[in-house]
Amino acid sequence: MAWRPYLDLQIVQHRRFPERGIPRYAAELSRALIEAGVPIAALALNPRMPYPDRLPSELARAAQLSWNTAATLRAAVEAGPTLYHLLAPFEPSDLSSPWLPLHVARNEVPLVISVYDLIPEVMGFVAPGSRAERFYRIRNRLLASADLLLAISEQTRNDVIDRLSIAPDRVHVVGAGCSAYFRPPGPRESPEAVLHEHLPSIDMPYVLTVSAWEPRKNTELLIDAFARLPRDVRGMLQLVVACNLPPEGRKEWTERARRRGMDDRSFVLTGFVPDAV
């Protein structure tokens, strides 16, 4: 019998950004595994966190969806070979509530962890002696204890090997994919019409970034760089930044663009953009 993944899906319960990034990747990967007929032992949610608001319908009605308890894991192991797949080791949580449940840490089930990047450490965003440093130190020990690490890029694999001193044969690149929902338009579909209806401020060729109100996204540098394009080139383009933004973020980026000589037409903040758009 093949190994069955017990998917730790608690990342989709993320309190701040359930609609983007790693929560989205974890949900789509789980949905793809179901569609591919992979024998999933469980889609496990954290019972200490609220039920997710944006759980895809295929996952919400899946028979494998359950709360991540010692009884659920025990039943999975008794049913056949089971590996525990932690889909997100680096999302901040209450340090008094372990991201890896104790009933998993004390179990002999093989541990597999997905690693997306080590950006906070690589870019120097973790201050020595801070709570964040403690958080990443704990998480790095978790990675070091795993039986297998799945990196989404060769760069991430190299960072894990070099910075965490993990043996190369324990880190494998699996790449990243895109949901089947995102595809070229059909013969009767008009992306231009959808864009005009939902985001009429985009009315010419544009440069797009999907960002966030976080320093590591470096959107400020993008604004500065776009403003330094030759005037005739910049005049033919709009810079479009798509993401949820708090009021202070919208204000700061808009004022920065204006100081660099960009008006409301050349610089567009879309806010949250739904899948259909």
How would you describe this structure in keywords?
10 strands, three-stranded parallel beta sheet, alpha/beta, 277 residues, single chain
Q: Oligomeric status of the shown chains?
A: single chain
- Give the class from helix and strand content and strand pairing: alpha/beta
Counting DSSP E segments of at least 2 residues, the number of strands comes to: 10
The rounded distance between the terminal residues' Cα atoms is 43 Å
The overall average pLDDT, rounded, is 89
Query: How helix-rich are the residues, as a percent range?
Result: 25-40%
Radius of gyration over alpha carbons? 21 Å
Give the strand order of the largest sheet, numbering strands 1, 2, ... along the chain.
3-2-1-4-5-6-7
Percent strand equals 15-25%
Shape: globular
Spans of at least 5 consecutive residues with low confidence: none
Annotation field: number of helices: 11
